């Protein structure tokens, strides 16, 4: 129970209510649907749409617009924030294409689509064949690593994490707790963090791969994945090493791994649909998407892949097997829309009030969650998902449509007052 003056209530509630209903109605126009891989943030947006579009009439929304003196300013700020985000995206995109055209575009270029034979096996380009040359070469083996492998508990995996930032550390913590042997390498130095987590840290990839990991887990950013992958000393690994990625898009890393890894290597594309924030209280019920892109048929390789997947199944994840293409189709809606709305609202500087509604709390939580992710992650979702541009366009059109609906109603009211109801037309015009 909260006692406050009408003026105080107006200052607190009108803005938060109007913003919440505006976002809910814009998203409602997109006809968003639940997917097999909903994130927590996307679930919150679906709930917001249901509350605002089915529970509240347009009349209520229009009345909030009419009776709040700052409503027009809020609409304008939302529009400016959305435009600023689009400009930021397109600025990055322009720079990316410029580097491709006028600079050295090889390091960060987008992986070209692969041709496949009749059996669905990727055909290897000449550049890939060159990278694969180590397969037939007589490579010196690390004798100590071979001996130690004989005594390793076969129920656990030796996992090398490439990219030991926040997400790599987040995954490593659970892997170590389950008894797996975890090694790590990153461009930044994390020896102290690794020691606290019980992870063996290496300052270069050569030393890391000399330890012959069974699994190489790629935890780099989307934008740096290709450059990092091409720099790895693959000749140091066992021929049938399992490579796993955890990127937020899937078609891009699938093509990249097929193009750059030897044919003997196994490939598992995955996406834990959670992170350090949403998964801080456990992974139970959170979606984990995976696609066994290429896994050898012999028992040891199948078992190794299943043991890796079991890391997440043991924590209670909702295990979802689907193709990389299907994942990207769903993720453009659930992930990209969620991140876009969170970043637009983040530019408004929203703050909690004394009378927050559940809907407004949802928006504040969304801003907090997306603000913790780098812009590179968001830009990667945009650049490497072919469905993202269409989602951006639809969001833009939905916002413009809602504004037109408001102004048409406003125009109709003024028109009636001028020509039908109000004798003092000069007062109305003023």
TrEMBL record:
What the entry lists under Pfam families is as follows: PDH_N (PF02153), TYRAAT1_C (PF26213)
Q: Which UniProt keywords are given for this protein, alphabetically ordered?
A: Oxidoreductase
Q: Which PROSITE patterns match?
A: PDH_ADH (PS51176)
Where on the tree of life does the source sit, at the highest rank? Eukaryota
Q: Does the keyword Coiled coil apply?
A: no
One GO molecular-function entry: NAD+ binding
Prephenate/arogenate dehydrogenase domain spans which residues?
157-430
- One record GO biological process: tyrosine biosynthetic process
Q: What is this protein called?
A: Prephenate/arogenate dehydrogenase domain-containing protein
Question: Could you tell me which species this protein originates from?
Answer: Prunus persica
